[in-house]
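Lay summary. Proteins are chains of building blocks that fold into shapes, and those shapes determine what they do. In this project we predict the shape from the chain. Here is one chain we studied, written as its sequence of building blocks.
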Amino acid sequence: MARFKQYSYSQGKFIPIQFEKQILPNTFEYALHYLIDNEVDLSVFRQKYKNDDTGAPAYDPAILLKIVLYAYSRGIVSSRKIAQCCRENIIFMALSADTRPHFTTIASFISSLDQEVVHLFRDILLVCDQMGLIGKEMFAVDGCKLPSNASKEWSGTKAEFEKKCKKLEDAISRMIEKNRQVDQKESVDSEVLARDQKYIDTLKKQVKKIRQWLDDNDDKPGRGGGIRKSNITDNDSAKMKTSKGVLQGYNGVAMVDDKHQVIVHCEAFGDGQEQHLLRPMLEGTQKMLAAIDTNILTKIKLTADAGFHTAKNMKYLFEEDIDAYVADRNFRKRDPRFQDQAKYKARARKERQSKWFTPRDFQVDLDKETCICPAGNSLYVKNRNFVTKKGYKAIAFMARKTDCQKCSLRKRCLRNPDTTPARQVHIFYGKKKGAGNPYIERMKNKLDSAFGRLIYSKRLGTVEPVFAHITSAIGLNRFTLRGKSKVNIQWMLFCLVHNMKKIHRYGLGFT
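And here is the predicted shape, written in a compact code that computers can read:
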């Protein structure tokens, strides 16, 4: 039989190590080590330290930056795991020179980088420009919605929290009364009583948490005059709709250059709607690139998807002389390449219509102003001059409550048959004269041109791979900090790692 040398992975060995030789050239840790020591101005970090005469020596910010950024490049975001790596992993030992900072020191350092991370990001951006990694021809802006360190179950308005608090209090009262009655009739196992008492204590803590929040906070006002849902755990976060469902989190927005997909500006927002984020992103980009070009926005082409398309944004772009290409909701419908897309949606539309009645299922005569529902009942005219915010005109028909309440088709006609008394139907027939926005029409004409479609086609391949790299390759699948300031720090650090990897891959001397 064949014989092999004996070996064991469980054995250890003491060997002499020189830290500099562990940071091998052509690796990311080598590029990170060089950039922090030679290309980044760390004087902004020294202002917060006041231990010249008294106090213990502090950890060098360069050391902390190296281990934090290297950990983020490996998808390690926990301060405890970073501290553990500094004790067990040879690369972390080499980058930290075996100083072994405590996890509380690492966590405090990350949370306090509110101003410093901006300077750090700008310095790395200047390095990218010096190496020719920024084309400065076309920028693409978009957002990436990620869950935060907060549960959406703790979201709601003050009225909803009051209702939830009352439910919890009623549940506590019922459990206490149930235990009292059981004690009087029979003996109960102490383990069962302990379990019930533990559950009661948990509910009391939840009630206390809600009551404290209600005493210290008010409802968040919405942009349309309504009320936005708050979150007890992290009130800066927001409920957001995504393709994978509703999540409680933040929207990490990035402005990306198209040459090598370098992020030129980034910021995290606690809002899923992106319409009002375009202007602050443009202003932030101009400040970030001021050292490179004071009028960079007037020299580049900007692309953005329909989430940023509003009349106010279009007016701002044209007035600021920004060569932008922003899609609207009907952009694809006007594209001749998608003229046959309706036939691929016919099956889904048929299935949807088979479940719910749409306005197409109603018999409408606009001349006579009559409308008959699928059940054969007539609807009366509720509003002849209904006009939407975008200027579309319609006639609003309303069913009688007596007809809807006894109708056998009620469940197919109303989305919420238990709460909605009667069906309402809007039949659109035109647009109000003069309702068209001139800036929106100019953007449509600009985008529908052959050159406009060519420029806009680059948007997807510019910004989307950046989010895929950060969330999948690097490993940021959720924000672990709370509060907009701290979440923004974490988002900028990951974007910083992305840019450093671009320097490592494309920059001279790092490949």
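What the prediction tells us: The mean pLDDT is 88.
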